[in-house]
Structures are given as C-alpha cells and as structure tokens.
Amino acid sequence: MLAESGDGLYILDQHAAQERVNYEYYRQAIGEVSNDQQHLLVPIVLDYSAADAISIRDHRDVLESVGLYLEDFGQNSFVVEHHPTWFKAGQEEDTIKEMVDWVLRDGRMTVAAFREKTAIMMSCKRAIKANHHLDDRQARALLQKLPECENPFNCPHGRPVLVHFSNTDLEKMFKRIQDSHESGEMQA
C-alpha cells in the first residue's frame, strides 16, 4: 500500500500491518483465556508415540493455560472436543498440532512464553497474504486500526510495517537535488 503525506511517501507492508493488528488482538485474547469454547461436531483425535504421550501429559497445564484441553483417549492418544473460539475456522487441527509440537519440542515452557508464541503464530496465520488485493474498505479499516497498536511500526517478528521516504529522499532518488558530497562542494 502507498500513502502520500506532506512530508513524503509511505510504503506499507499490508501483511506485516495486519500481523501487528492481529498480534495485539490475540495477545489480549490469549492472555484473558475466557471460557468461550467452540464445541466440535467431530472431535479431533491425536495419536502420539509413548514417549510423546508422556511428555504431553507432563506439560498439559501449559496447553490448558491458553484454553486447549487434551483428554486421554487410550494409551497414546488424546481427543479434543472443543477449542478456544479465537482459533481460525478450518485450521483447528493444524493449530492444535502445532501447539502440541511446541510443547514436545521445547519441553517445559513458561505460560507467558507459550502464550506469546501462540499469539505470534495466530496473528501470522490470519494476516492478509502478500499479493492479496485489498479493497478500499479493507485498506481503510487496516489504516484505522494500525495507529491504535502499541507498536505500529514492526510486525511481531520484528520486520518493519512501513517505510518512509521524505520529500528530500525522493528528490535525491530522482536526481533533482544532490548530496553536497556528490556535487563536489565542500561544507564547513
């Protein structure tokens, strides 16, 4: 997205901007861990090795801290009958598996670290994808929400959301003006 102002030109990365807006929403939603759950018509059954099943049981409290409950379903299996309402529709099973994989890979993780990782993952999955065209309404909505963010300048991964070129920068790029060192002039 491009935006012009009196002081120059702004280039906005719509994916990074949406990621930032989403991140702040999910960080709050995950931090509050409401009792709002989406019940599944068909429960999700997850099968693991014996060692992984033991590890999941040992770290189940971390998953429960964000509203994800895995119930025992046999020796090495678990069933998920509901999930938090903030899960993206159509990606529930992938999201659950990814969250369980973090617990298996990282072992004992603090609740705060797990919530942070979950907020970042969810914000990215729900963000506008690169090369996706936004209509005027969507673009305006994004531009209205972004300044309300705690940090509107970077996505949760640290990438810049926008780049600013001042009028002077633009004039230099188009060779309308030169830096003093390029023109051969000496400055005092």
Automatic annotation (TrEMBL):
Which InterPro entries does UniProt cross-reference here?
A: MutL/Mlh/Pms-like, MutL_C, MutL_C_dimsub, MutL_C_regsub, MutL_C_sf
| Gene Ontology CC annotations of this record | mismatch repair complex
In Pfam terms, one family for this protein is MutL_C
Record-level GO BP terms:
mismatch repair
Please list the residue ranges annotated as the MutL C-terminal dimerisation domain: 1-134
* Listed SMART domains: MutL_C (SM00853)
What sections of the protein cross the membrane? Answer: none
Q: What is this protein called?
A: DNA mismatch repair protein
Which source organism? Answer: Lacticaseibacillus paracasei subsp. paracasei Lpp126
